[in-house]
Design a protein that fits this description.
By secondary structure, the chain is of the alpha/beta class. The radius of gyration is 23 Å and the shape is globular. The strands form two sheets. The protein has a seven-stranded mixed beta sheet with strand order 6-5-4-7-8-10-9, sandwiched between helices. Helices cover 49% and strands 15% of the residues. It has two domains: 93 residues, Winged helix-like DNA-binding domain superfamily/Winged helix DNA-binding domain (Arc Repressor Mutant, subunit A, Orthogonal Bundle); 236 residues, Vaccinia Virus protein VP39 (Rossmann fold, 3-Layer(aba) Sandwich), CATH 3.40.50. It has 16 helices and ten strands.
Length: 350
């Protein structure tokens, strides 16, 4: 009889399972600790080298003993490093909490610990009702709540830039757009994806199409990227229509925000805007037909629940995306794996 077949082996497995489950249950503390680090601007304060606790407490207007506890918690996560002399320094992970560095996740960290955090506390109600927090509170899904809240809109769009940067780079590397002269980024936010595409394909011209709460930030972002002179910024709703006549239409992280009926309207409007030789590129996470214990499936499952809570949307399988495209008179032609569990589904008019 082996150890695992013995009562002692059974006890060992139960203890391991309990330890693992406890780690999962307690994982919320890491989101809050990292989010608070961004709210206190600790990464910026440490960007030029180690600093002692006293200086950090003065700069952040924090209670020194309590800030020390936060910093030591962050050190246990490898976000900062605690030095022997009592100072703290950024690690490679912590450096990504600086807002203006390549690959920054600062805005996303802040968003997850503030705006998004409130929604997760209502997951049970969303599961019971099938309705998002926004639908339950405001009577409708969508992003109109950002129209009257400039601070919330800014944080949301900055967070989306954080998540889009690496995906945009993968799109440029993995999808051949060399024959296209024009592109429309539908619901493009601040234009991180469009800026990458235009930057890689001069003299291609682009249209950034989104609601008005995104446009001021989009103009600034596109100008900073050096492509504003080749990009028109247009206000509008993709439920009313989409600018026509482009060679390529981009839909990144749009369809997962909406239920099937809304997706049908969005795709139908894209199809009507497309000429016979245009291409639609849908960029989304792809849900596995059957979930496994893997980083990919966990990341997509988290996003799927986030859509349930926040927007009333959902993540979908490859077959589900292709069925939606075909229902909109679009023929799927390729599925390209990108990065960070995103894929691009290309389609053309039937």
């Amino acid at each position: 009889m082996t150890e695992v077949d013995t009562p002692a082996g059974d006890k060992h497995r139960r203890e391991d399972a309990r330890t693992r489950l406890l780690e999962l249950i307690n994982a919320n503390w890491t989101t809050q600790a990292i989010s608070v680090a961004t709210q206190l601007h600790l990464a910026e304060l440490l960007s030029n080298g180690p600093r002692p606790l006293r200086e950090l407490a003065e700069s952040t207007s924090c209670h020194p003993p309590s800030l020390l506890r936060l910093l030591r918690a962050l050190a246990s996560l490898d976000v900062v490093a605690e030095r022997e002399e009592g100072s703290f320094a950024l690690t490679d992970l912590g450096a990504l909490l600086q807002p203006n560095v390549p690959g920054s996740l600062a805005a996303w960290a802040q968003f997850c610990g503030t705006s998004s955090w409130q929604g997760w506390s209502q997951l049970a109600e969303c599961v019971r009702s099938g309705e998002s927090v926004r639908k339950r509170a405001l009577g409708a899904d969508g992003f109109n709540h950002l129209q009257g809240d400039a601070d919330a809109a800014l944080l949301f769009h900055r967070a989306m830039v954080s998540l889009t940067a690496s995906v945009a780079a993968a799109v440029v590397q993995s999808i051949d757009l060399s024959g296209a002269e024009s592109v429309v980024d539908v619901g493009g936010g601040f234009g991180e994806l469009l800026a990458a595409v235009l930057g890689a394909h001069a003299p291609m011209r682009g249209v950034l199409f989104d609601l008005s709460h995104a446009l001021e930030g989009a103009r600034a972002h596109l100008a900073e990227a050096g492509v504003a002179d080749r990009c028109e910024v247009v206000a509008g709703s993709f439920f009313d229509g989409v600018p026509g006549g482009a060679d390529v239409y981009l839909l990144k992280s749009i369809l997962h925000d909406w239920d099937e009926a809304h997706c049908a309207v969005i795709l139908g409007n894209c199809r009507r805007a497309m000429g016979s030789h245009a291409r639609l590129i849908v960029i989304e996470r792809i849900l596995s037909p059957r979930m496994t214990v893997s980083p990919h499936d966990q990341a997509v499952a988290r996003s799927d629940l986030n859509m349930l809570i926040g927007t009333g949307g959902r993540e979908r399988t490859k077959d589900q995306f292709e069925a939606m495209l075909e229902a909109a008179d679009l023929r799927p032609t390729a599925m390209v794996e990108l990065t960070n569990r995103y894929s691009a589904c290309e389609a053309v008019p039937m």
